[in-house]
Specification:
The chain is mostly helical. The chain has 3 helices and 2 strands. The protein has a two-stranded antiparallel sheet with strand order 1-2.
Length: about 120
């Protein structure tokens, strides 16, 4: 029995466990075993879901930051592509597509220029 319970009987850990068990037993005697068991199981389900959702929340925050960074890169790349297109058109003496350039610069959605519409 010494290796299963390495604490002494007079230890404060046993006092805490004994006190908590008395609270649980009192609850079971007052409301009944089925209702008390359902309350205890509901509490453990609550703790499990809280633990899982805390991890999901931090993951969602990280993914949101990554998506915002990717969106700004797409905007920058689209602007760079328009610049390259204009430079190549100028060097080859071709007429650039002014309508496409105007759409790229003037399309505003939600207060931001939407660079995905081409």
């Amino acid at each position: 029995m010494g290796y299963l319970f390495p604490f002494k009987r007079s230890s404060s850990v046993f006092n805490i466990i004994n006190k908590d068990m008395n609270v649980v037993m009192k609850l079971l005697m007052e409301v009944g075993i089925p209702i008390g068991s359902a309350i205890i199981m509901g509490f453990f389900i609550f703790l499990t879901l809280k633990y899982i959702l805390d991890g999901v929340g931090s993951s969602v925050t990280g993914l949101t930051n990554i998506m915002n960074g990717l969106e700004s890169r797409v905007r920058q790349m689209n602007n760079d592509m328009i610049k390259i297109d204009l430079l190549v058109s100028e060097s080859l003496d071709l007429r650039p597509d002014i309508d496409r350039v105007a759409r790229n610069e003037n399309f505003v959605e939600d207060g931001k220029i939407d660079s995905r519409r081409d």
